[in-house]
Amino acid sequence: MAQDQQSYHRAANAALMGLVAQIVLGVAMALAGLWAQAPSLYAATWQFLGGLPIWVILWIIYHQHEIERAEALEVEQLSRAPGQAGGGDGAIFDSQADELHQARGRLEKLYKWGLHFTGLFVAGYLLVLGITLFIIAYNKLHAGGAGDGQFLTAAIAQDKNPLVLLGVMAGMAFFAFIVARYQAGMTQVNEWQLLRGGAGYLISNAILAIAFAIVAVFSWRGQRLPLAYMSLIVPGFMLILGGEVLLAFLLGAYRPRRPGEMPRPAFDSRLMGWLTRPESLANSINQALNYQFGIEVSRSWFYRLLSKAITPLLAFGILVLVLISSVLIVTPEEAVVITTFGKIDRVAEPGLRFKWPWPIGGAQRYPVGRIQQLYVGSYLDPLPPGKAILWTNQHASVTEELLIAAPTPGVALPSVGQGVPAAEPVTDASATPAPADGAATTSTTSGGTSGTSGGGATPSISLIAAQVNVQYRIRDLDQYVRSAADPEQYLSELSDR
Predict the structure, then answer these.
(1) Helix residue ranges per DSSP H, 221-297
(2) Angle at 281 (CA atoms; ends 280, 287), nearest 5 degrees
(3) Strands 437-442 and 343-348
(4) What percent of the chain has pLDDT over 90?
(5) Which helix (DSSP H) or strand (DSSP E) does residue 200 occupy?
(6) Are 201 and 272 in contact (CB under 8 A)?
(7) Taken in order 181, 183, 184, 185, is the CA torsion positive or negative?
(8) What is the pLDDT of residue 379?
(9) What pLDDT, in 10s, does the model give residues 462-491?
(10) Using CB atoms within 10 A of its CB, is residue 18 exposed (0-12), middle (13-18) or buried (19+)?
(11) Residue 41 and residue 169 in contact, taking contact as beta carbons nearer than 8 Å
């Protein structure tokens, strides 16, 4: 395309359109944050506003290009009309040439200082705000822990419908992606390649909007933690983008430039550029293969056939993986708890079963047909299998915890010296925890003492060092998984008590 005034006028209009789109997205994200009262949306608003300096400098540069082309055309027309001004045309031409020189000088300063200053400003903006927002969110999220109410204040407000947030974020992601792709399509013209930096930043906005749409689905299903963690993810994303811009700025300062080469500003993200124009990544791979093998691999028939079929092959592979994640094979000795959006949906019996594909649906397997075993008592780790427990070898930990055994009402508790194991009362079947049914057995005790308080009003107790092997089998899997967040840990604590 010719470097005329009209071409730069279109580029200036495109930059102005990108600036308006960036303002609309930033305002929409801010209003969504005010509505949802979510700190993660506030952080995303700051990230969205970081693209405003990029579009401003792009519009200024292309508008200055437009002025420079108009002045150049005017001087060219004056130079082609000699003698029209009665001999004064030379002076007029010299004056216009000086103005043209000034326009070019302003344009060169914009390329030399404006682009670099904008890149450095964007890098500092993203890094400083990213660190600040990350520290604030980290202190707030971990003030009380994941189970504390203060932790969930970083998610959407209780009286707000997450489906509204889902619709808003989906619309923002679609709008940002369409504008970014339009801007990226214009960058195929060499004079419009600067628009690639703004298009890449819009793609980063679309990525955040898609992430918020996904966590809004989890919030709709009652899982508020993903949206709360977005207040950490968004600043981390800002740090990644800011670090890349700063690194590009430092490396670009030492990069040699050829005369007439279109500069690539630091805010033109390479990571986002691959998402904006996936074909650029394919071209890079082609060049790498050609350089590595020393021949034009990209021109071979096999490579051309593969390049045409790679998209449907990848789509077919992804479809197969999604379908596979929807199929379950439940073996006879187990049962599977099927979840949808993190909530328990149903319990699947042995056989061929189906669920929603990942990540919507999940499955947790439990060996309901086998007897399971856990260890409680004075030992944190089970004793080695097959090792004899004798009085002559050490089989008790130095820092053992002694169990207090009280007799069953109406049953006398013999002392250790009478030859009855002191740990026998803890094998009472009534002590089996509620989440599962089974029987508990105990290993040989390592020792114990018993005593009786004076007056005989208080029954005898014994201090026992013992490893208790609790064997159980899950009878009602639905009740078992709903009893606690970690049923096995819950069962262990009840057994130890």
Answers:
(1) 225-252, 270-276, 278-293
(2) 90
(3) unpaired
(4) 16
(5) helix 195-220
(6) yes
(7) positive
(8) 61
(9) 777 777 788 888 888 888 888 887 888 888
(10) buried
(11) no
Backbone angles phi, psi at 459, to 5 degrees: -70, 165
The whole-angstrom separation of Cα 216 and Cα 291 is 46
The residue assigned the tokens 């005010």 is: 34
String of DSSP letters for 354-369: E-PPTTTEEEEEE-TT
Residue 336, phi then psi, degrees to nearest 5? -125, 130
Q: Which amino acid is at 184?
A: A
Contact 124, 182 (CB under 8 A): no
Nearest Cα neighbor of 162 from 37, 46, 43, 49 is 37
334 to 222, 328, 371: CA distances (angstroms): 28, 12, 11
Report whether the peptide linkage leading into residue 487 is cis, meaning its omega lies within 30 degrees of zero. Answer: no
Q: How far apart are CA 427 and CA 377, in angstroms?
A: 12
Given its phi and psi angles, is residue 124 left (phi above 0), alpha (psi -120 to 50 degrees) or beta?
alpha
Of 47-51, 144-148, 186-190, the range with the highest mean pLDDT is 47-51
What is the rounded CA–CA span in Å between residue 231 and residue 135? Answer: 10
Cα gap 405→492, rounded to integer Å: 18
**DSSP designation for 114:** I
Number of alpha helices (DSSP H) and beta strands (DSSP E) in the chain? 13, 11
Q: Which helix (H) or strand (E) holds 467?
A: strand 467-473
Strand order in the sheet with 461-465: 403-405, 461-465, 447-451
- For the question of whether the overall pTM of this predicted structure is more than 0.70, the answer is no
Segments in 80-194 forming alpha helices (H) = 89-109, 115-141, 162-186
For helices 225-252 and 195-220, what crossing angle results, to 10°?
A: 170
